[in-house]
Design brief:
This protein is an alpha+beta fold and 143 residues long. 16% of the residues lie in helices and 34% in strands. The chain has a five-stranded antiparallel sheet, covered by helices on one side. It holds the Pfam family 4HBT.
Amino acid sequence: MTTAVEPGHIENVLIHFDDLDAMGVLHNGRYVLLLERALAAYWSERGWPFDPATPHFADIFFVVREFAITYHVPIAAVGPIGVHFWLDRVGTTSLVYGFRVLSADRSVIHAEGRRVQVKIDPATLRPAPIGADVRDACAVLLK
């Protein structure tokens, strides 16, 4: 018997009271932050913190080019949720993430979407090639 394994990683993120809107559901703008927090935690835990004091800072100088999301089921409570993310593509200068925001028990998909990031040179702010070390680190997330 085989079991399908989902590509990517699921990072647990907390929803706080101040993330909810006036109707008591997670504000639509907070989904961007949930993904950002999940990605930051994932990469930091693997030795890639977004810290200008680190020697590899220029290697991970990415900006968001595109963010698209589809909302399915509102989140109406505080507490933990799962952010499942993976890489659909690693290009010359860009990363294309897919993601899903899941209930804590992983049974409900609250939202899903994609995020495109472009590696830029910190001095010129122009697109720059993604280095081999970053490509190697990304390999485990590829779908």
